[in-house]
Design a protein that fits this description.
alpha/beta, 8 helices, two-stranded parallel sheet, 40% helix, globular
């Protein structure tokens, strides 16, 4: 069990990067979403408390409804729109109310050299794969995000850990763009002439509602 493993290792820091983040699947599998994103977090924080360890928990920009037009700070009021977002906020709430020493990190639009296995890659990999197949690519232009490089996120987490500055932190790269603009930049940087066009969220009609604006300010 996680408790047995952690009690044996006796870490000073427990870094929780796990999540059930197949956002649309969460709508029909709420039990699994809350099991991974909330109840498992409760289990970890109890073990961390027993060890006097710091719990570092990774959360998401999706806790906001996206109706703002200026970046969300750590003081902004969450209003989640999906089962996934609600389950992640529930995990945050458990940490904030029950963990003795904790850091919650909200981030956005992650991409890196290796994508998430659970999601089958990341946005950069997906765009390049589709372009190499010669597929027509339609990407939403009405959802604004901050693409965040995983190496930069890891470096910033590493800077924060020794400080014992506990609490809630937004942690992303700077700037923002739509997913369409992100895709266009990817193809420009790779020198690929892709069959890319913008579309709207209405076109896809996904089970889960995405926030139209989920830019975080690292206040």
């Amino acid at each position: 069990s996680a408790r047995a493993a952690l009690m044996d290792l006796r870490p000073e820091i427990v870094l929780n990067t796990t999540a059930y983040h197949r956002v649309d699947e969460c709508e029909s599998r709420a039990d699994l979403a809350y099991g991974v994103n909330a109840l498992a977090v409760l289990n970890l924080l109890r073990v961390a408390n027993d060890l006097q360890a710091v719990l570092v928990h990774i959360s998401t920009d999706y806790v906001f409804d996206g109706r703002a037009r200026t970046p969300y700070t750590e003081r902004s009021e969450p209003f989640p729109l999906s089962v996934y977002a609600n389950s992640k906020l529930a995990g945050e709430s458990l940490v904030r109310t029950m963990a003795k020493k904790y850091i919650i990190i909200r981030t956005c639009g992650l991409y890196g050299k290796a994508g998430s296995q659970g999601k089958g890659g990341n946005f950069v990999q997906t765009m390049l794969t589709k372009a190499k197949r010669g597929e027509p690519i339609q990407v939403v232009s009405d959802q604004e995000v901050t693409p965040t490089y995983t190496v930069d996120l890891a470096d910033q987490i590493a800077c924060l850990l020794p400080t014992e500055n506990f609490g809630l932190f937004h942690m992303t790269n700077e700037g923002s763009c739509s997913w369409y603009e992100f895709a266009r930049a990817i193809f420009e940087l790779w020198g690929i002439d892709a069959d890319l066009s913008p579309t709207s969220s209405e076109f896809y009609k996904t089970p889960a509602i995405r926030p139209p604006f989920s830019v975080l300010e690292n206040a």
